[in-house]
Amino acid sequence: MKRLLSTACSETSFNIAVLILRVTFGMLLLVNHGIDKLKHFAERQNSFPDPIHIGHMPSLMLVLFAEVFCAVFVVLGLFTRIMTIPVVITFLVAVFMIHKGFRGDNEVAVLYLAGFFSILLMGPGKYSIDGAMGK
């Protein structure tokens, strides 16, 4: 009981928590969003939101880079902090430019933003490729 009420965190439990966070958020982003956008690329390339005014297709390609390529690297724990930056930027744009702030209709975007920002702050943890390489 004393351990349940403690604010201390062992290194092992921290590393397991980071692993769970990385794999969960990375796989959910990849499977539920990235692969769907990849499958329907042709349909979306001319109508994808363009909040930063670079064109529909370049906006879609940047989001695909974040949701597919970066998500895979985060799951593996390879260049984790660098790979979370495009994802965090993607969801900052989604939350504040597409959905116009913290409202009920953008709950998923806010959750992804919080999860990936946490990973950015904590790093990959010991149970990752970065951790195995000693970074």
TrEMBL record:
<dbReference type="InterPro" id="IPR032808">
    <property type="entry name" value="DoxX"/>
</dbReference>
<feature type="transmembrane region" description="Helical">
    <location>
        <begin position="108"/>
        <end position="129"/>
    </location>
</feature>
<keyword id="KW-1003">Cell membrane</keyword>
<feature type="transmembrane region" description="Helical">
    <location>
        <begin position="83"/>
        <end position="102"/>
    </location>
</feature>
<dbReference type="InterPro" id="IPR051907">
    <property type="entry name" value="DoxX-like_oxidoreductase"/>
</dbReference>
<feature type="transmembrane region" description="Helical">
    <location>
        <begin position="12"/>
        <end position="35"/>
    </location>
</feature>
<comment type="similarity">
    <text>Belongs to the DoxX family.</text>
</comment>
<dbReference type="Pfam" id="PF07681">
    <property type="entry name" value="DoxX"/>
</dbReference>
<keyword id="KW-0472">Membrane</keyword>
<protein>
    <recommendedName>
        <fullName>DoxX family protein</fullName>
    </recommendedName>
</protein>
<keyword id="KW-0812">Transmembrane</keyword>
<feature type="transmembrane region" description="Helical">
    <location>
        <begin position="55"/>
        <end position="76"/>
    </location>
</feature>
<keyword id="KW-1133">Transmembrane helix</keyword>
<dbReference type="GO" id="GO:0005886">
    <property type="term" value="C:plasma membrane"/>
</dbReference>
